[in-house]
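User: I'll paste a sequence; please echo it back and then give the predicted structure.

Assistant: Echoing your sequence first, then the prediction.
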Amino acid sequence: MKWLDYWLQSQRTRRVVPFVAQGARVLDIACADGALFRLLDGRLGSGVGIDMDPVPMSTTTLTYIRGSFPDDLPPSQSFDVVAALAIVEHIPRAGLATFAAGCATRLKSGGRLVVTVPSPRVDDILRVLKRAGLVDGMHEEQHHGLRPGQAIAMFVQAGLVLERHSTFELGLNHLLVFAKP
């Protein structure tokens, strides 16, 4: 990843921090290099990161799983916070309901799902930045065109309640926070 990729990643990961209470158990879907857990160091009770790409080594409080969510996550695990940052736009339409149900199932009652979804305009911007050599792009070629409103609908249909919808990065990214009743 290039410096701009890391900066964009940091803009997403820091959005999760206000929703993680001291000692919380956190699931990071598409955890990449574990950036969210490094940011939450000292606040986190324990965490599980899952990613289809190579993952960091597990520690006493952090478990990393190389695999696909929800299929490769043990079914008995539940979390105070589930983070799905810049991932739902990569899921083919046929898998969206399963993904949303998996998130809802893994949340404890009263838990929060924190999601970021880019504006559809981001793909054009990433193509230009990639051509200029400023970003690696983080699999933008796999975007399936999911819009923020569609993401909201799929998580609400899975039984979650939208608590917050805001934008960041000049309106190019959407922060969605859902609660499990």
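The chain has a mean pLDDT of 90. The beta strands are 24-29, 44-51, 62-66, 79-85, 107-118, 161-168, 173-179.
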